Amino acid sequence: MVISSLIVKCLPGFEEPLLSRLKDLERVSVEGVMNGDIILVMENELVHDAVQMIESGIGALPGVTGVYPVYIAMDTDFPGGGVNFA
């Protein structure tokens, strides 16, 4: 399991429409808004899924200017060869 805390930066006036869209996303929890930034917590099974959601999901929404991970925590035992992030 991969748990990520994210800050979503958006254009002025897009906060409310984005909140509505973000609340509809599976595995994404809206934690609040601070100074126009939207704070999220996201859960994914794989790191690749988290990156894809950040880049192609949240980052592609209208009005989003950036998605910034604050922390990423994994409760996974890594195999002897390491982790393949591709």
Descriptive notes:
The two termini are about 15 Å apart. This protein has a four-stranded antiparallel sheet with strand order 2-3-1-4. It has helices at about 15-25, 45-55; strands spanning about 1-10, 30-35, 35-45, 65-75. It contains two helices and four strands; from the N terminus they run βαββαβ. The model has no long low-confidence stretch (mean pLDDT about 90). It has about 90 residues and is an alpha+beta fold. The protein is elongated, with a radius of gyration of 14 Å.
Give the tags:
86 residues; alpha+beta; 4-stranded antiparallel beta sheet; 4 strands
Brief rundown of the structure:
With 86 residues, the chain is an alpha+beta fold. The radius of gyration is 14 Å and the shape is elongated.
List the SSEs and their pairings.
Elements: E1 2-10, H1 15-23, E2 28-34, E3 37-44, H2 47-57, E4 64-74
The number of strands is 4
Class of secondary structure makeup: alpha+beta
- Evaluate the radius of gyration: 14 Å
- N-to-C terminal Cα separation, in Å? 17 Å
- Strand order across the biggest sheet? 2-3-1-4
How helix-rich are the residues, as a percent range?
10-25%
- Written as H for each helix and E for each strand, in order along the chain, the element string is EHEEHE
Quote the beta fraction.
Answer: 35-45%
Which word captures the global form? elongated
This entry's quaternary arrangement is single chain
Which residues sit in consecutive blocks of at least 5 with pLDDT less than 50?
A: none
Residue-averaged pLDDT: 89
Biggest sheet character: 4 strands, antiparallel
Helices, by number, come to: 2
